[in-house]
Amino acid sequence: MLTLLLIIIYISFISLGLPDAILGSAWPMIHQDLNVSISYAGLVTMIISCGTIISSFFSEKFIRKFGTGKVTTFSVFLTAIGLLGIYFSPSFIWICLLGIPLGLGAGAVDSALNNFVALHYKAKHMNWLHCFWGIGATTGPFLMSIYLLKENGWRLGYATIGIIQAILVICLFISLPLWKRFDINTNDEVSNNDIIKISTLLKLPGAKPALISFFCYCAVELTTGLWVSSYLVISNGLSAKTAAKWVSLYYLGITIGRFLAGFISIKLNNKQMIKIGQVTCIIGGILLIITYSSNIQLIGLITIGLGCAPIYPAMLHETPNRFGKELSQGIMGIQMATAYIGSTFMPPLFGVLSQVVGFKILPYFLLILMILMLISTEKVNKICKNSNNK
Asked: Where exactly are the transmembrane stretches of this chain (predicted)?
């Protein structure tokens, strides 16, 4: 039974990754067809991100009331509606409006599935789960590229991915009886089924440094992915084509790293995986500073990707151990929301900062976030250890 659900969850995470990178791939054609500025893509991504943050914050309330299966099914339904709706969008305002269900659906399903896996499966599956997300995020732009040369190609691309999501909704709906059994089992473990206020969760020992860790991680991953290409071109004189290839190697490092981390996590615990990943990231950041050798910088970039690989899945999987099973869903939602805040606002913040001090500050900016993440993680480990010993 758990194996069948795990297969469904893996497929769901591929599907979750599919829409995440297609806007950037399709936007050069979308903004021309809809006659809007190319800079308007930032507005769409902000709307989607805000929806994701909001649904993550309130995911516990809906999951406790309706169960993981129903929330996941409805969330994927919202993303399908958003994607298919974009196919019919007559103007830019409709793209913005449809970004709302896209964001709301993504945040809720992310929180629900991550907590479900943290509660019911081993750490290796959490790593492979996020590896599958990377497969989806890689496949999405590839599917879009197939259609872009055709008339209204971006619409066909969105429709194709929307249909894939709709098929997943049907599969999830059929699987609802399986989810319900585990929701019942989970509720049996929970002594108090009342919704716990966010303010109460934030007062838990170790909660705040844990949130800082999530914020810093996503800020590092997304800021690196967005700006390292410009850093390499402007500061080090690499060609745009070469820099783009390097960025793809960075993401490949994260995907392969998570696949390998699944096997390594059989021998090492979550805390060890997190620390190894964070130290590896710091080493990669230091190598990125060395500008006299492009080969060393490439190694540094790939090292950051490999370091990022185990951190996020291990932090998610450690949540029930840190805060208890009965509180894990509430904390999980807040952690996801905080992670999205980091990924939404820190890359643009660096963009503004780079206009003032230049792109050469990028490795130092990343190192500050990496070190803060390491310090916060060590602090939450110490606090939770002391709390558990009482």
From this structure: 40-59, 71-88, 94-116, 128-149, 155-179, 211-234, 246-266, 352-375
